[in-house]
Design a protein that fits this description.
Shape: globular
Subcellular location: Membrane
Strand content: under 5%
Pfam families: TerC (PF03741)
Helix content: 55-70%
Family: Belongs to the TerC family.
Protein name: Tellurite resistance protein TerC
Membrane topology: Multi-pass membrane protein
């Protein structure tokens, strides 16, 4: 699809405007959204993605439209694994609940910027070297294998990766929150607050996720515009999805299996495409419509199997402990309800959450500005390592 520069410009301007408007709303009235509010906003962003896809289908043809919908669904489903890490991050950094929206929004904006760079680089490489699809396919198959076998190891705590440890060494920090401020001056020194650290951690963590999610969309289409917009619409709805589904993720016991099957299918598709592009062998290509059907069936079966497993487990004693206190739960606030969400997520935490983990520790406290938000003197120190 030949996309004119002005179309790229308009797309980027609209995305920036949406994020800026969202930021103004969050900044003016910091709060923890209810499930109803989160559901409304998730519906809005899903609706925008559908409208965009229909518009693309109408203006550019069924092929690009189908590519967008397939890529968007792949990215959105893989974003569920990001939510596990968000829960672990917020628990480890003891982020005040009313400021989590702001942290997520800025972190997602950083993620979109990083992914834009990755997509531009990936598109340039794909255009010149078709053999790179062998590498993309191998990455996805390896990721699928680690999800199935758990070779990465399940993570019940957040651990700094190498980049985050470098940030800590280079930035003088304070262990106390000062509202939503990212920097504060103490004793004449400019210090980074834990809010800045958690935003950086969100962005860096998404970089690791992008290493397999972006090749997955390139397995659907090599059009950089479609890859970018599919990523953008998936990321924009992620903040509200965190508050809506955070505490329920632990019940998706077959999420890793479903994601592994999706990645394995796309990885195989990429390898077939690479063979077709680099050899004269009559290698069949998997059409996009079939990819969409296969992915939807896998995700549907995963969801149904998880629901059935959760209901069967519900007949046992203590089965609901930690699952009912969602990240977007209307009842309770402060870190007391965090523990429920964290434990609920831990039980089904994806192995991708633990990639590139290292050591690091930190216990953060709410400052005077956070006292009214946490019902006391701020969130208590994190039980996990930041």
């Amino acid at each position: 699809m030949d996309v004119q520069p002005w179309v790229w410009g308009v797309t980027v301007v609209v995305l920036v405007a949406v994020i800026a408007a969202d930021f103004v709303v969050v900044t003016r009235r910091p709060h923890e959204p209810s499930n109803t509010e989160s559901a409304v906003w998730v519906s809005v962003y899903v609706g925008l993605a559908i409208v965009f896809g229909i518009g693309l289908w109408t203006l550019a043809g069924p092929g690009p439209g189908l590519d967008f919908f397939t890529g968007w669904i792949v990215e959105y489903s893989m974003s569920l694994d990001n939510l596990f890490v968000f829960i672990l991050l917020f628990g480890a950094f003891s982020v005040p609940r009313v400021h989590r929206q702001r942290a997520l929004l800025i972190g997602i904006a950083l993620s979109l910027l990083f992914r834009g760079v990755f997509i531009a680089l990936g598109a340039a490489v794909v255009e010149r070297f078709a053999a790179v699809f062998f590498l993309f396919g191998a990455v996805l198959l390896y990721t699928a294998w680690t999800l199935i076998t758990g070779k990465d190891g399940d993570q019940e705590e957040y651990h700094d990766n190498a980049a985050m440890r470098l940030v800590r060494r280079g930035l003088p920090t304070t262990d106390r929150y000062h509202g939503a401020r990212m920097t504060v001056r103490e004793s004449g020194r400019l210090l980074a607050t834990p809010m800045l650290l958690v935003i950086v951690a969100l962005g860096l963590t998404d970089v690791m996720f992008a290493l397999d999610s972006i090749p997955a969309v390139f397995g659907i289409t090599d059009d950089p515009y479609i890859v970018f917009t599919a990523n953008a619409f998936a990321l924009m709805g992620l903040r509200q999805l965190y508050f809506l589904l955070g505490g329920l993720l632990g019940r998706l016991v077959y999420l890793n299996t479903g994601l592994a099957l999706v990645l394995a299918f796309i990885g195989a598709k990429l390898l077939l495409h690479a063979l077709n592009a680099t050899t004269s062998l009559p290698i069949p290509e998997i059409p996009t419509w079939l990819s969409l059907v296969v992915i939807l069936v896998i995700l549907l079966v995963t969801a149904i199997a998880s629901v059935i497993a959760a209901r069967r487990a519900g007949s046992g004693p203590g089965s609901d402990s930690g699952a009912g206190s969602g990240a977007g739960s209307d009842s309770g606030s402060g870190s007391g309800s965090d523990s429920g969400a964290d434990s609920g997520a831990d039980s089904g935490s994806g192995p991708r959450a633990g990639s590139d983990s290292g050591s690091g520790a930190g216990a953060y406290r709410g400052g005077p500005e956070d006292a009214s938000e946490t019902g006391g003197h701020g969130d208590p120190p994190a039980s996990g390592r930041a």
